[in-house]
Specification:
Two copies of one chain form a homodimer.
Chain A: H1 2-11, H2 26-32, H3 38-41, E1 52-54, E2 59-62, E3 68-71, H4 73-83, H5 90-93, E4 95-96, E5 104-105, E6 112-120, H6 122-130, H7 135-154, E7 160-166, E8 171-180, E9 182-188, H8 191-194, H9 198-201, E10 213-219, E11 233-234, E12 253-258, H10 269-300, H11 305-331, H12 334-350, H13 353-370, H14 377-387, H15 390-404, H16 418-430, H17 437-452, H18 461-467, H19 477-489, H20 497-503, H21 508-513, H22 517-557, E13 571-576, E14 580-583, E15 586-588, E16 591-593, H23 594-600, H24 610-618, E17 633-638, E18 650-652, E19 658-665, E20 683-687, H25 688-698, H26 702-707
Antiparallel strand pairs in A: 1-2, 1-6, 2-3, 3-10, 4-9, 5-9, 6-8, 7-8, 9-10, 10-11, 12-13, 12-18, 14-15, 16-17, 17-20, 18-19, 19-20
Helix pairs in contact in A: 6-7, 7-22, 10-11, 10-12, 10-14, 10-17, 12-13, 13-22, 14-17, 15-16, 15-22, 16-20, 17-19, 18-22
């Protein structure tokens, strides 16, 4: 065991690799325990990568020839809410469709994206951008080139395309994806299985979450992507994963394939410092307020939990992340480390006249730009929180569509082209989370009060005019905010989905003339938002010029920096099943078991359902037992490199078979978006044997098992 | 490592052995790693046992030829308070006497007892007791025999003697001890070293406490025990421990020698059940009230912390223990386990007519007696809390002395003979903890209010008369309690130590005639107390008859029960340095380090002093480094069997050398007074290398190191 662990540690490599990089990693992969052909591993036209899809914010993978997808329970919560009928609480009870007829739509805005190919378009984008006369125009030329590439790619109607930037804009890829639009809920365990331990266990180990969820993708009877229809048929994926019923052990080679959203490992020191000094504290302050407010809402009215719970969970998770990251910054002296790295970079640049000429000026500009606008941070973050309210956000989005809709499609802002219309409409009509007006109103009032308490110069004039508020420093912030909240929320017509549906696509004039308070506020705030967008574009234009050079210089100094930041594209990380030492004299093993789950059982959030506890007490493990552990494993740790967007990603063994689903990171590695630490950063996955045992012994979902090619055994 | 750990586990034996049992354990000891002659180990006339002394409630050991003793910091807190001068806060600052002239008296009531010999007196005691005509008289005859044996033993004046009962009264030993009466404080680390982590870490692992404390015992210039005098000289102990500067590692053999006070491993099932159902919940309820009250006192008046802090700590510790024990009872199904054992015992008895004749009736009687008086439990426990107040306790003690003083010495109650007078007087005059009248008053008022709220029949008539309270159910409990508190505490003459000194030894008539409210309350309550004592004696008389037979039957059924419950006499436990698994996927290593200590540092209770943190940052470990760990070890775990009274006990290696000081148990083993579990029960000790490194690198106490025969090295 010790030798294995040492071998594993010696192998471990940080990195979210692009598929195209995998063949070059072949020797490393083979040494680590990958048993198939590494050249094939990078191939999207093959399993396993061909089976790994994006849900937008989460990852899933095909596990049957009939479009069955597996992902995380926490990725499916919103779909479950959407699928639920009056009087049901599917979150609490769980859901299982024994036949396809029982499956329920996950909602019109849900999509599955299957990556079909990459094309390097660096030259096309950067040549266009380099024709710019200034930073501001650089953005327009880049966006124009992007729109043209996307339009050409989507022309046949078979694909959905996007352009992604790698290495801070040093390289661009055009990504071609198949988009499926009819997604249905097949199986969800009860919340107290899928979310066992809730916030008490969130980010923590030892963990015992059954964080899995089954969906099915449907297409039209002609086999082509189509919106929901009862006539649709299951999608036949080109590739699917095989389930590894034998599982993993400590020291096992594992890899994860998925769609990580965003990392910050290429930030300049001044940006790290800005994050630690201003952005994280600001986020923590505001998120704490909202989280406490939503908690109080649920305490006062437990029935609100179904609507408010998911938002609260998501904000709580972000808050915990922000606090943990700030703490990790402090403990890891990350600002100092970033400063030291940048100082080394400066020396490296200064050592060579050619480097000085190429890098000095743009890197200085990048650093200066990082602290620009700091003085408005508070105002802008308060305005962002206000704009996040479901109804104001819907009104602003719809108004923006009316404005962009006046332009030719090829000239519109990214995200407001005809290709985006259906999904944008669905989002506005359905709304992301459940609408709960009392808490939304309270949040609006809270942030507006705070905004009105800023110095007069920081209060957006457009907002003050809409409020009919006096200029000057003295005003009754509390009273004004309460009156505004009353104006908006006393009788909000937009709370009705039909009203929203009707507004979507109306002309600009209808918005401008409207007396609806949300519509009129959205119209009033548009100039403020447009000004911010212009400022952001100028800034982005400068970054399009400076960031690639900063990344190039960093790689020049340190050739070990061999993978780009996460950007929502398909990546693979390789590693080892292993525990870690969180602190002096404590060692975490890499696997938990159903016996540990039962030991934790008690009050919420450990209120394990009786059928689960009964099945554990019966000790019928079937083939899902781990012989070394003596019962069924639940979760496992590995040093795989993941981040938000990887949720639901398949964890694969040395033959590319499914052994688990990644669903969380550990508290000690919570700042891994900024820095990955081999000895501390861990990925938490649910063991596929727990999923199989649960389906077999608790859910008795024989059909689902058979569809995955697994024989029920209990 | 794995093989060693397995070997160790196979060896591990539960048990607090009497020294006389050790030679018989020789094969086990040798196999486990004891390297000296096991026959010698049981010998009080030799090191190491000859160097291990009782402080009454704690254990210490001689570590120099000049009477230097080492024990736990938490055993020394009261002495430190006593030694402190106005304006000093020795608890906070720590204390070090660089020369003997700087050492300070630990207070007149402090004693050191050096065990000099045991004599089996079973026949003498039990023959006397067997002449009793009833259970009540059995107590008197047993006490008479005890007094005679003690008087004969102490006649020469060289010894202090006591009779201890083993195996529930199956066996008695007369124990001869040398008593030293001049004890001085030599060195105490600051509270934030000795008590690092306070209640957050109490009972917890990983731990980083420097729980050590140095005292020196003095005798008269003639070498004989004497009360404090500036002319006294250091005591020259016959035996002292050698310090093992190389320390221990995981898997090492260790043993601990000390004076464990009390365990409950021979209780009948009905007593276990009584504890779980009534006594622990009652303790938790009342201790929670007092703990919260003292916490609020300190929060409102931080200056009160010096006086109230130690009581609060002690009550908090007891409360945590009671809660943890109750929880462990539940988790371990201990009531059910005890019932199963008693059921097996009943079968074993029923299987043989001779057993039936000998055991059936007395064991039935024992079980019946266990639930007697349950209906008065609440009243009696409230009266006990009231009687615990410093001033009322002093008044009652002094009145009792006046009553007992009228009898011939040989007829007085145990504890009220002339041999007990000096120490009793010192306790009353000095008081155990710092006197803090506002909190004492609040506690009195709280419990009196609760007592007065009991049904009328449960309120002691003597107390009601003193209060001038109406009989009958209706009374104003709050108002009455407030008036009584005012009567006692508005101007309490007994708060003055000189007043207490003056009262001690006054005749009964002076007490009866006194108008002092505490004295008059003590006089008023005497009949209530006398009645309880009579009831307890009758009960004890029955137990003197039945308990030895219960123990004998248990041992008959299960010959593996080979050691008696702790009873404050010298015991040895043997075991292994090893960690444990507290829960699924978590493994605790057996050692912590100064690096882990520094990692924890922050706000109180982790406010490590700067000189300590600086010394750690300097990384000068000297010879005190553990080569495997790479820095200085702080605390370690072992499966040694300890309980209250063992605090400060020397932990010894295979050659009997000092490797640590036991100071705590772990939360998972908190019910070990009732049941020892090899896989969960652990003893937490401070590693002697931390002590040495601290003295060397932080305290720069070269003199202290040299006196222990250790060369300073940093």
């Amino acid at each position: 065991m010790h030798l294995l662990a040492l071998a594993a540690t010696a192998f471990a490599v940080e990195g979210m690799w692009e598929p195209s990089q995998l063949p070059a990693l072949a020797p490393t992969l083979r040494a680590a325990g990958y048993l198939d052909d590494p050249a094939r591993l990078g191939d999207l036209g093959n399993a396993p990568l061909g089976a790994v899809v994006s849900l937008g914010g989460c990852t899933a993978s095909f596990v049957s020839d009939l479009g069955l997808l597996v992902t995380n329970h926490h990725c499916g919560v919103g779909m479950l809410q959407r699928a639920q009928k009056d009087g049901e609480s599917l979150l609490e009870s769980g859901f299982y469709a024994p036949t396809r007829a029982d499956e329920r739509s996950a909602g019109a805005m849900r999509r599955v994206w299957i990556t079909d190919g990459f094309e390097d378009v660096t030259r096309k984008i950067r040549t266009a951008a380099d024709r710019a006369r200034d930073d501001r125009q650089r953005v327009d030329l880049t966006d124009d080139a992007t729109r043209k590439l996307v339009a050409a790619c989507e022309k046949s109607g078979a694909y959905r395309c996007r352009v992604a930037s790698f290495y801070e804009g040093e390289r661009y890829s055009l990504i071609r994806q198949i988009e499926l639009r009819d997604l249905r809920v097949v199986m969800a365990p009860p919340d107290m299985v899928g979310n066992y331990g809730d916030e008490v266990d969130n980010w923590h180990w030892p963990r015992h979450s059954g964080d899995f969820f089954f969906l099915r993708a449907y297409v039209g009877p002609d086999g082509k992507p189509a919106a929901y229809s009862p006539d649709n048929v299951p999608y036949a994926p080109r590739h699917r994963l095989v389930v590894a019923t034998r599982g993993i052990s400590p020291g096992s080679f594992v890899m994860v394939a998925g769609y990580p959203g965003h990392t910050e490992r290429w930030r300049a020191a001044v940006e790290v410092e800005h994050e630690a000094r201003l952005k994280l504290p600001e986020t923590i302050k505001h998120a704490t307020g909202v989280f406490d407010l939503l908690t109080a809402t649920i305490e006062a009215d437990p029935a609100a939990s179904a609507l408010v719970g998911p938002s609260r969970g998501s904000i709580g998770n972000g808050l915990f992340n922000a606090k943990g990251t700030l703490e990790a910054f402090r403990r890891g002296n990350m600002v100092a480390a970033a400063r030291a790295r940048d100082a080394a970079l400066d020396s490296w640049i200064a050592a060579d006249p050619a480097r000085l000429a190429r890098y000095r000026a743009p890197i200085d500009a990048l650093r200066l730009a990082a602290v620009e606008g700091e003085e408005h941070l508070r105002r802008d973050s308060l305005m962002d929180w206000i704009a996040r309210g479901d109804l104001l956000h819907a009104a602003s989005t719809m108004f923006r569509w009316s404005l962009e809709g006046q332009k030719p499609d090829a000239r519109r802002e990214l995200g407001f082209q005809e290709r985006d219309r259906d999904r944008a409409r669905a989002r506005v009509v359905e709304l992301q989370a459940g609408l709960h007006l009392p808490s939304e109103r309270a949040i609006f009032e809270r942030f507006l009060t705070e905004l009105l308490s800023l110095p007069a110069a920081e209060r957006p004039a457009e907002l003050m005019a809409w409020l009919g508020a006096p200029s000057g420093d003295k005003l009754d912030a509390v009273g004004l905010a309460a009156r505004a909240a009353s104006r908006l929320y006393d009788a909000p017509a937009l709370a009705d989905a039909d009203q929203r549906e009707a507004w979507f696509g109306r002309p600009e004039g209808a918005f401008v003339a409207s007396a609806d308070p949300f519509i009129s506020l959205a119209v009033a705030l548009r100039p403020y938002e447009a000004a911010r967008e212009e400022r952001d574009k100028t800034r982005r234009g400068a970054e399009l010029r400076t960031r690639p050079l900063y990344a190039e210089a960093l790689r020049g100094m340190d050739p070990a920096r061999t993978y780009p930041d996460a950007n929502g594209t398909l990546r693979v990380s390789v590693g080892t099943v292993q525990g870690y030492s969180p602190r002096d004299a404590v060692k975490y093993g890499s696997q938990t078991t159903v016996l540990g789950l039962a030991e934790k059982a008690g009050d919420w959030p450990f209120a394990a359902p009786k059928p689960l506890l009964d099945a554990i007490a019966a000790e019928k493990w079937g083939p899902w037992i781990d012989p070394t552990l003596g019962s069924v494993p639940v979760n496992f740790l590995s040093d795989l490199d993941i981040t938000g967007g990887n949720s639901g990603s398949p964890v694969l063994d040395g033959r590319g078979r499914l052994v688990g689903l990644a669903f969380d990171g550990n508290i000690e590695g919570i700042a891994s978006d900024w820095r990955f630490e081999l000895d501390k950063t861990r990925c938490i996955s649910v063991d596929v044997r727990y999923l199989l045992w649960y389906l077999d012994a608790v859910q008795k979902a024989d059909g689902l098992l058979l569809e995955m090619g697994v024989a029920p055994a209990i």
